[in-house]
Amino acid sequence: MSRLQKKKPQSEKRKRVVETTDDETGVAVKSTVERKPVRSLSDGRSEKAGQPEADNIFIRTTEFFREVKVELKKVVWPTRKQTTGTTVVVVIFVFIVAVFLGVFDYSLSKLVQVVLT
Fold first, then answer.
1. How far apart are CA 77 and CA 69, in angstroms?
2. Of 14, 39, 54, 71, which is most buried with the most CB atoms under 10 A?
3. Residue 65, Cα to own-chain centre: how many angstroms?
4. Which residues contact 49 (CB under 8 A, 6 or more apart)?
């Protein structure tokens, strides 16, 4: 640990800052919440503050796909016009780079032939 980093006391490590908005005023409010410690069970698994780890793979899988669905609803997808425009730009750029590399390769091969002959 560098001398610039100060080690936080154990009580500070368990705290996290939560930002919420006040319903009446609409102002963002920051507050600190103490994290609950994670216990280790006898068989090597962990338990979060009284909640045993979900053993059922089907429950975890459905939970994962629910979270994926929520996150995908937040995505802003590009329009067809934006997608077409960026695709055209990429194809033109690839063509320009291909021509540049072709000319460079051809000129270097001719230079090598002149030097070796």
1. 14
2. 14
3. 17
4. 36, 37, 38, 39
Query: pTM for the full model?
Result: 0.42
The reported pLDDT for the residue numbered 45 is 56
Coil, strand or helix at 98: helix
Instruction: Convert the pLDDT of each residue in 53-79 to its tens digit.
Output: 556 888 999 999 999 999 999 999 999
Nearest to 30 by CA among 19, 40, 39, 21: 19
Query: What is Dmax (Cα atoms) for the chain?
Result: 86
Chain length of the chain: 117
Mean pLDDT along residues 19-36: 66
For 93, the 3-state DSSP assignment is helix
CA 96/CA 90 separation, integer angstroms: 10
